[in-house]
Amino acid sequence: MNPTAFRLRAALLLGGALLTAGSAAQADPIISRLNPPSRLFSEKSTDGPITARFLPDQRFDLQATVQPDPGQRITKVEFFVDGASVGVATSLLPADANGVKENSVSAHRRAYALSRPGVHELRATATQSDGKTVTAVGNFEIVGVGGGKRRAKNIIFMIGDGFGLGHRSAARVLLKGNLQGKATGRLAMDSFPATGFVITPSLNSIVTDSSPGAHCYATGNKADNNEEGVFPDDTKDAFDNPRIENVGEYLHRKQNKALGIVTTADVEDATPGAFGAHTANRGAGTGITDMFFAERAKSGLKVLMGGGRRWFLPAGTPGSQRNEANDYVLPEDAAAAWGVSRGSRDPATDMLEEWRKDGWHYVPDKTAMEAAPDDGRLLGLFALGHMNVAKDKIDGRRGTGKVVNDFGFPDQPMLDEMARKALRVLEKHRDGFVLLVEGASIDKQTHAMDPERSLLDVIEFDRAVQVCKEFAEKNPDTLIVVTADHDCGGMNIIGASRVSNAELAERAARGGGVKELRDPVVGTYESAGFPRYVIAPDGYPVTTDIDGKMLLGLAANADRYEDWLTNPLPLDGRLQGYPKGPKERDVAGGFLITGQVPGGSAVHTGTDVPISAFGRGAMSFVGVMDNTDVFFKALQVVLSGER
Amino acid sequence: MRTLSAFLAIGLVSVLAALPSRGQPPAPLLPPLPAGVAALEFSDFFVRPVGPRGLELTEKLLSLDGKRVRLLGYMVQQEEPRPGTFLLCERPLLIDEHEGGYADLPPAHVRVLVPTAADRVLPHTPRPLLLTGTLSVGNRREPDGSVSLVRLTLDAPAASSDTPTTTPQ
Predict the structure, then answer these.
(1) Considering only CB atoms, which chain A residues are within 8 Å of B43?
(2) Which end of chain A has a smaller Cβ tally under 10 Å, C or N?
């Protein structure tokens, strides 16, 4: 920013601050929050970019938090768009979050929509019991679509959770190798014609978590960390927040499209939750999975597959985690305006039975999944919690590992197998579909600082990309977008081992720390050379412990011991004999890598993530874009066609 | 504070085995099983592999309902411990009932009932505990609102023949 611009900005902000202070002194009550969020409301700034954007006729709630004078109460809140009333708030819920004054309310005008493109002024006027009023102003934008040709009928969002550029590069080395400086093959996603970068911050941080990181693709908007399908508010209830209609709901309402959600995580996890639920608490598993079911008629949900059976078993059943505390009941006005069930706090309900009674095919393992009919609706729950990761599933199939048996689920499908089945079911739906495919444990295993497990999950994810690409080649009215919600760990290739695997194992057993496991082992630059892995017929490396193996570092790591050898077991806090944290693993080598972050887990980073697109409208995804842009680019292709 | 062993008929077990090989759990050295007491392990609780629904109780666990058993485990460190009872599971664990309820508890855990200390909150003991008592299997709502599946009512110290025989760490 140049000095003149800085002075102008400072003067504007000062003016805004004085205006706010004056307003507060003379005109309590105050409106302390106005949704959709805007810089006009928060900073009194008319500078772009506009924070909240919607498609024509995409529905969203208007919300204001109003704090009355002491002894007063709020009697009415009315919302205006471009100066015209759009209705009086239908609910004045207690704004009971910490830091909000007594008798404050969260006022909602539910399920508003506007078709006229452009930036619109939003105004809320609140009246308290003594007749005093207060007004707040914000704005939002309706993004026009049109001018396109050749529309897409199907969209496939493929999200590698925590899948940064380092993960992609390292997986390519692992799977394809290099010779004389050239990659000897490409990942399936590398073959996509369009590639760009996505800027990933959430509404309240430069580093997003997975819920707003997926919510942006599902709704076109930002959310606070831990929130999905909603804007933040000031109530403790995680299910009364102002909602935004997501891509599945919007396209089901507009074009009768079906929705499919496929993940290797628990199906209530943040990314799938952002495509099927609306909550300020990404951890509210009972409520999120119940909402998938309760609102299936609005989302067009036809396929739901992943882990997470624990949320479907009635409370009291061993393995169930259904509980009343994270279930939900919607406010009456929200349910009425959105045309959905209010829900109920019913942890004792057998949700597997409810889905079955509704006509869903329930499949508990790969064998049943593949035998299930392709017509109808499919619920696959392959584990109590998150599914096991690709390395452990493949080791189980090869008979070289026992992890899937220890967890009790030896017949779990791979992500590509789940994606293939989902496409077979969804392609029966003649009006097209929206499909989310998530490679969830790229992130989870990077949090665990287990590079081999993370990279084998990238390979699994890429195999699912190949399945979807083949579908799109046969169905050219399909758009595939492959990206991530954020990077995790800043994992990257630092070089390769200078020693054989046998020597590495000996050094790890001797326990000399840096002298044994860093200085003589870590090969950088030309000392790294080109590691060569052998790929088995199942598509995964025969072993990740080769002589001169690739070594990976982390930019946002916690304390961990490292011996560079593939960890025989994943971290797990429950199973006897499994390391519980990164300081219980690789201890014998004595090589402690001190982390930059506290705790026992690597963290997400704020770096951009790659995006690649294939099929109808793919070339829209070139360049640098905000994560919310992805939604509007994809929906332009579906609603009007590629430009 | 008095130690836990002052209240209970327990063994505080030293894990005397050699350091585990990669991925293998240590094998603790346990005293001989007392007469009339069956050995029970957490891995005995549920049928593996898991069936199409939730976890199913094994025949062994069901057959031990009402019988005296011995179980080795760790006392769960609770943010809100209750008088006269604690939770036991296969490995050390901390749970915050206020934040996450009992969601972090593995399904294979036991609610231990301590009649000799019914009015006392028992101090957390971070070592393996070898407990002997009477097993009870089946859902039961507890006074704190939670539902327990497997309970172990500890023998009174005088009634137990399973006295500590190994060296506390």
Answers:
(1) 576
(2) N
User: Which of A477, A478, A445, A479 minimizes the C-alpha distance to A461?
Assistant: A445
* Residues A390-449: tens digit of each pLDDT: 999 999 999 999 999 999 999 999 999 999 999 999 999 999 999 999 999 999 999 999
- The encoded tokens of residue B147 equal 């539902």
A632 Cα to chain B: minimum distance (Å): 37
Going by pLDDT thresholds of 50, 70 and 90, the confidence category of residue A515 is very high
Q: Which pair of structure tokens corresponds to residue A452?
A: 């081999």
Q: Which residues of A touch B23 (CB under 8 A)?
A: 568-569, 577-578
- Inform me whether the C-beta atom of residue B22 falls under 8 Å from chain A C-beta atoms: yes
Q: Is the pLDDT of residue A584 over 60?
A: yes
Nearest to A217 by CA among A420, A476, A470, A479: A479
Burial A447-472 (b: 16+ CB within 10 A, else e): bbbbbbbbbbbbbbbbbbbbbbbebb
What is the spatial distance between Cα B168 and Cα A461, in angstroms, rounded to a whole number? 49
> Which pLDDT score, from 0 to 100, does residue B28 have?
62
Helices and strands (H, E) in chain B, number of each type: 2, 9
B15 inside 8 A of chain A by CB: no
**Rounded CA gap, A100 and A102, in Å?**
7
Of A318, A325, A568, the CB nearest to B22: A568
**How many Å apart are CA A294 and CA A501, to the nearest integer?**
53
Q: Which residues contact B87 (CB under 8 A, 6 or more apart)?
A: B75, B76, B78, B95, B105, B109, B110, B111, B112
Handedness of CA A484, A485, A490, A491 (dihedral sign): negative
**What ipTM did this prediction achieve?**
0.83
Q: Which amino acid is at A246?
A: N
CB–CB of A155/A435 below 8 Å? yes
In chain B the first and final C-alpha atoms are separated, in Å, by 18
- Length, in residues, of chain B: 169
Residue A488 CA to residue A190 CA, distance in Å, equals: 20
Q: How far off is chain B from A144, nearest CA to CA, in Å?
A: 44
Question: Where are any strands of DSSP class E within chain B?
Answer: 10-12, 38-40, 68-75, 77-78, 85-89, 94-95, 109-113, 128-141, 147-154
Q: Which residues, at least 6 apart from A256, have a Cβ–Cβ distance to it below 8 Å?
A: A300, A431
Please compute the mean of the pLDDT values over residues B38-65 and round it to a whole number. Answer: 95
Q: For chain A, give the number of residues.
A: 643
In Å, how far are B6, B8, B82, B122 from B2, measured between CA atoms?
A: 7, 11, 17, 9
Sheet hosting strand A623-626, strand order edge to edge: A360-363, A377-381, A301-307, A258-266, A433-439, A154-160, A478-483, A609-615, A194-199, A623-626
Residues of B in contact with A382 (CB under 8 A): none
CA torsion sign, A181 to A187 to A188 to A193?
negative
Q: How far is CA A643 from CA A81, A431, A515, A620, in A?
A: 30, 22, 59, 8
Q: Where are the domains of chain B?
A: 4-13+33-159
Question: Which pLDDT tens digit goes with each residue over B103-143?
Answer: 677 889 999 999 999 999 999 998 999 999 999 999 888 88
Confirm if B133 and B153 have CB atoms less than 8 A apart: yes
Please give, rounded to a whole number of angstroms, the shortest distance from the CA of B55 to a CA of chain A: 5
What are the φ/ψ torsions at residue B137 (nearest 5 degrees)?
Answer: -120, 135
Domains and CATH numbers, chain A: 27-142 (2.60.40.10), 154-182+252-466 (3.40.720.10), 492-593 (no CATH)
What the block records as the tokens of A411 is: 């017949």
